[in-house]
Amino acid sequence: MSTFWIFLAILIIQRISELLLARRNEKIVRAKGAREYDEKGYKVIVLMHIFFFISLISEYILLDRTINHFWAPLLILFLIAQILRYWAISTLGYNWNTKILTTPNTRPIRGGPYKYINHPNYLSVVIEIAVIPLIFSCYITSVIFSVLNLLLLKRRIRIEEKALSRVNL
């Protein structure tokens, strides 16, 4: 089995695990009265991520891509993004989710990476969407989905900031 397929399998397992964690966390915060924002936008983001994987696989196979000569620094950048991602997830605890959910009478978290940046998980995703395809020389996927991701995140961050400002403190 090639490096690409092993890497892809690890990513898919990681994403499924995160979705399961998000579902568990959603049940916890909904029991505390959480309100969801931008349900339709969430579906678009999910579709974008699905098409990201389809594009990555298609470009790799159809254009006969190989591992990039600069795979080592790209992999290091990917791993740094993973550290940032899991630092954000662990800091938020059960408040972490893939959806925009706010719980009444809960202050926004300002510890961990949130002490330094407002949306560390989104920064991690931006790095991942750009770097994962580059590791395997899938330049088209990297460019197209980086642009799409930035457009979707710009909108999502605006909605999330508005939702967080409405939480009853």
Protein topology:
Blueprint: H1 3-31, E1 35-37, H2 39-62, H3 71-92, E2 100-102, H4 120-135, H5 139-165
Antiparallel strand pairs: 1-2
What is the helix fraction of residues, given as a range?
55-70%
Q: Radius of gyration from the CA trace?
A: 17 Å
Please state the average pLDDT score: 95
Strand segment count:
2
Instruction: List low-confidence stretches.
Output: none
Largest sheet: 2 strands, antiparallel
Can you tell me the CATH architecture? Up-down Bundle
Q: What structural category characterises the helix and strand content?
A: mainly alpha
Number of domains: 1
Shape: elongated
Elements, N to C (H/E): HEHHEHH
Quickly name the level 1 CATH class.
Answer: Mainly Alpha
Number of helical regions: 5
